[in-house]
Amino acid sequence: MERIGKKLKNKINQLKNIIIQENFIEFIKKISIYLKKNLKKVLICFPPIDFLIFYFSIVNLKKRIKAEENIDDILETAGYYKINYKKINAEEWEDPQKISYERKGVELCKGKYEGYGKYRFNLCQEKESIKKLLKRVKSLGPSVIMEIGTASGGSLYTWCRYLKDLEMIISIDFDFNGREKLFKSFAPEKEMHFIEGDSHDQNVFEKVSKILKSKKVDFIYIDADHSYEGVKKDFEMYKRFASNNTIIGLHDICHFGTGVPKFWKEIKRFYKTEEFGEKLQKNGLVYLKRV
Question: What pLDDT shows up at residue 86?
Fold first, then answer.
């Protein structure tokens, strides 16, 4: 009891010193500002509150899944970008780096799934681009897929929901922020693996190798590091898990200001490729079977 009393006395003295040094009014102001900014973050991480947020998010997601009948319904759940190309003038296309997603002409259509806290997700893709890609990938019948760069989980949701014949899904991301349990609910009947870390890290590569054993990946989707070096390294590293019939998807192949268009231009010389979408938002597909 004496030790506890001493600790409490020390804490009170520390608090007194802070108040004296800071000026009481200013100290209270700082505390108020901190709580205003961070209290919500602190509370939603508190286990009972996190459980409730997750529970109500899952209830809403299950309702949406029941309402899905086709690919358009799946995309309506996840949300997407809608681009009005008429509002983006020719002068801007001459200098595409000026184009941003916050401008007039690019609208984020919020998904019909209503999640809470960290259990929200949105598909950061133009609708027609991802729709065409999904249809092409489905026609090739993949059973094992890998996504490099999952972010909030929007594209992962579309793979899980639309590619019905999947047996295994591997997702790699730098930080899942504890959302793996939400992602598992996208396809609870499938074998799903989540690997957290830098996709260029050898440890991450080895974890993928242990999961796959002798299996090959049928479809790899790369949407992580958008630098030229980054996307090239992801392509070169993970195509080692591919067969001759594997297809590799790349997002933002025309997104200037990143290194993806440069890599896309190079890769087209060596492989059969296909493009989906218009100028601002395009997906590319690489067929590893040599031309």
Answer: 60
Please give the structure tokens belonging to residue 281. 């938002």
Cα 23 from Cα 290, distance rounded (Å): 72
Which structure tokens are listed for 75? Answer: 């995309």
Q: Is 159 helix (H, G, I), strand (E, B) or coil?
A: helix
AA letter at 118: K
Residue 151 CA to residue 131 CA, distance in Å, equals 19
Position of tokens 């590091």?
225
Query: What six digits make up the tokens of 216?
Result: 């090959």
Two structure tokens written together for 78: 């996840």
Q: Are 158 and 187 in contact (CB under 8 A)?
A: no
What is the amino acid identity at position 280?
L
Angle between helices 127-139 and 71-78 (to 10 degrees): 130
CA distance 276 to 286: 12
**pLDDT of 172:** 98
- CA dist., res. 272 & res. 136, Å (int): 14
Q: Which two tokens stand for residue 283?
A: 């997906």
Residue 204: per-residue pLDDT: 97
Q: From the first residue on, what is the mean pLDDT of each consecutive set of 10 residues in the chain (291 residues)?
A: 57 62 63 61 67 90 95 94 63 49 64 90 90 95 96 95 95 94 95 97 97 96 94 96 94 82 93 85 84 49
Nearby residues of 192 by Cβ (< 8 Å), 6 or more positions away: 168, 169, 170, 171, 183, 184
For tokens 């030229």, what's the residue?
Answer: 228
Q: Going from the N-terminus, what domains does the chain have, and what CATH number goes with each?
A: 125-290 (3.40.50.150)
Nearest in space to 167 (alpha carbons), one of 137, 195, 190 = 190
